Amino acid sequence: MKISHLLLFILATWAYVMSAHSQSTAEAVVSQPDLHNNGDVRIPLANYIKLIEDARNPDLPAPAAYAIGQSDVTVKLSELDDRTTAYVTVNARIEVFEDQWSLIPILPYGAAITAVTINGKSIQLVQNAEWMSWSTNQAGTANLQISYSIDAARSDQGHVVPVPIPRASSTQLTVEFSGNELDMAVIPASDVKTSQQNKINRVTANIPTTSALLISWRVPSKQPYVLSRAKYQGQLQDKAFTFTADYQVEVFTGESIQLPLLPNSVTLNDVKVDGTAATILDQEGQFKVLLQGRGKHQITVVFQSTVKQQQGPPSVSFPVPRVAISEFELVLAGNKDISYYTGQPDIQLQLDLKQINGQVNSQFKDNVTIGQTFIPMTDVVTFAWIDAIPKDSKTEVRANANIYHAISAEEGVLYGKGLVDYEITHGETSTLSFQIPATAQVNRITAVTAGISDWTEASTDEVKTIKVFLDRKIKANFQLLVEYEQLLGQQTTANNDPAALEAIKVPLIKALAMHRQRGIVALLVGSELTLKPTKEQGVTRVGENQLPAFFRNQISQTIAHTFKYTSDMPQLTVETMAPIRKQGKYDAQVDTLISLGEVTMRGSAGIQIDVKSGTVLALDFAIPAGVNVLHVTGPSLRIHKVITDPTKGAGAEQLIKVEFTQEMTGQFQLEVNYENILEDSKSELEVPTIQVTGAEVQHGRIAVEALTAVEIQASKTLQLSTLEINELPQQLVLKTTNPILLAFKYVNSNTPHQLSLKMTRHQELAVQVAAIETANYQTLITDDGLAVTTARFDVRNSRLQFLRLSLPLESEVWSVFVNGKAEKPANANNNDTHSGQKDILIKMLNSATGFPVEVVYATPIKQMGLFGTISSQLPQPDMVVTHSYWDVYLPVGPNYQAVESNMNLVTAKQWVDPARHATLGAKQGASQVGKPLRMTVPQQGIQYSFEKLYANQSDSQAGFQIRYASATGNQVGLLVSIISVLMIWLVIFAIKSSQLSPRILVPVFMLGLVGLILSLAYLKSNPVAPLSTALAGGLVFLIMVLSPKFKNRQ
Questions:
Q1: Could you give the domains of the chain?
Q2: Distance between CA atoms of 32 and 26, rounded to whole angstroms?
Q3: 3-state SS class at 500
Q4: 281 — phi, psi (to 5°)?
Q5: At residue 408, does pLDDT exceed 80?
Q6: How far apart are CA 523 and CA 406, in angstroms?
Q7: Mean pLDDT, rounded, for 238-243
Q8: Is pLDDT above 60 for 491?
Q9: 543-549 contacts: CB < 8 A, separation 24 or more?
């Protein structure tokens, strides 16, 4: 019933909706008028009248659909690499007049548009004919903004970029670019202006109604033209030169330029540009030529210049443009020598400018001289010529000579130094000749202004002729320095008195082929001998001020006599004698460093001598008796001797007599080192110091240091005053690196100073002079019984010669490297095997910064069996080892048990991948190709790592012990443990059954118990199997016990 009621309700609702829809449709049909039938329309009268008037005056349509008013165009030029791009932004106002669809052209084709907006909203443009257009159907005013970019075209003349723009009634253009100013043109445009602000160049212009712009620009030329080459061809005609000048000009601008050529004082004959007669302008005192058009042009100018013959040779002078390359070709009748010089002499003299002159390369042929030359850049050039001189006349040389001699005697030799000052008055030459006596020997010939290629010597009985060859021809003045010597004559007296030597004829230099020559002879005072004139012929005594400064400055010795001569054959005879010297006056400053050692007292005295007047050739130093003088050093020191006055007894003081090789002046310093042997029983020490005898004023300073463990105190000071350490001179403090303990100063007085020291000796303690910061050991143990160890030490050593390394007795050393270099160790045992160790010596370096030492050795050990113990010990270096690290690699397979070691165990039972270490070893081996053989120990197996601080300083030697059992040993142990458990349970079962005698069961039980303990405790067998066996036996035993009880209950 309910379902039927529901269906009836749905049918009723549907019938109601359909009936309502049919009724509304009928009403709509009834309300629609019948347009095909006639009817009446009624409207108010006012509306009717308005309709009549509108029909009489209809609205006319708009004359245009749109208008583009003022637009602003901004162009920004951007240059990247070899491309220049113009980024354009256009802002324009567009007005649409009717509410109907209009297509407004915005931009011609050809621009890469990036954005278009109308009133700030993005729009899409429509492609129509040749324009990108905007389609709209709404009247009103719109703000258009469009952005696009265009690449500029590059050419030799510059850059060009066409810019399409909207066809607006007026356009304001702005072009912006950075960098230097450019020459820019805009077509079409008016009122073009250029400005710059913040390094941005800006060009503005007003653009008429157009759809495109053309913008071009170029870099402005710094100069409009370049005059690069000029060639002048001139010929002498009567009293004037006619020149034909060809100029090569390159113009860089397209505008017309005025090129100045010559001043208007020059007589022009003709001017042509590129073969065509040119227009000539006379402006600013210059003849100028009009040039137009980029590129190279040829200008030909014919002009005349008058020959001047007022003073000197005839010459022609004329102004020329400053050209980089200027070539001249001159033609003159007859054989002429042509020369040139640049610039105007009077102006260059006023401005202190250098005048450039030179010779023109000339060729004489057919009675005509043709000269060709190139001149440097100049404003004025002058050519002068004279009749050519015959070649025979050119080779004639006329010269004078001034010869200066410096003669000195020394140790049986007469030394001479001659300076020949040539004055060449005519011509030039590359060879010079002079003569010296045949007894003289030339040692050296030098020159300053020219090089000497070689010189030859031709001898006769009386003279030697020296011919010198120069590396180039010389003219004007030239100096030749000649060094020569001559042996002195034999002594005529038996007492070898230097004053008794025979007379010596002074060897003088004579220049050959000279028009005139004169000379000066200076006799010098030597360190041992001086020269005394005995015969003078053709010479005159003069003062030493007659010597020119350039020769006087080369003489360091004292001049005793000076002679001047003008004759060709002067003679001067001298004899040698000991120089009479007067000891100069001097002061002395003595700075002494006293160093106290175990058995010696050393002194180092720096003696500063200040010569106040005169010269000093010898000095005497006083030093106490018993002091050993070690050495004396100083400038120009000839010899020093230590003597004792025998008349004053054994305790007399000693004298150090010092002689110099030259007379000493000014300030100089000597160093004297001495020592005194100390007696063990003496604690009071007299400090020996040096006294400079003959010094007018003497003062000094004494510093005391200790070289060993001794305690020093001053027990007696006489005429001494204490001195602060910082008051000592720097050169005295720098003599030692030890601290200064005592310091004193003194001045000379009637009573000599005295210093006594009390010294207390103390025993020194030994310290470490070498140490090993880190020791890394790697030991590989094989199951065949070989232990290969690599020991790497980081050593710092200051004194030890060898590193003593104690190895096991049967060890064999494979390789030793010290600081990367292979070394051969030495055997320190000398075949002594009673010590039980093998000691090797490795040569060490002295380095406080540290260096590596690597030792690889092999030690035979007991071969591994079924089970046992592996043990090893570290080598013992004789240096203190701070950190010791030991990596031990054991064979894979055995079962390793507890470790016993006096080192700290870091890693245990860690498996090492042999493949990775083999790769590392191969790389290391490849890097060692060509180097000394370095042994590499493989790293593989089971790794144990140990470390310890100061491992070699304990009473027991660092090492380890590890028990092991092989795989077979493990199986034997497992079998023993199972059999032992079974034996124990068999005994228990037998006891329960009471079938066997206790005499048999007790030994069996004890045997099983011992076997079980041995397999588990010693062989370290796996306890799982015996435990399982024990549990199974216990379960069987429990079943046997409980089984009767269950049977009884049942």
A1: 66-218 (2.60.40.1730), 225-388 (2.60.40.1730), 396-577 (2.60.40), 585-739 (2.60.40), 770-963 (2.60.40.1730), 968-1048 (no CATH)
A2: 10
A3: helix
A4: -110, 145
A5: yes
A6: 6
A7: 86
A8: no
A9: 546/520, 547/404, 547/520, 547/522, 548/404
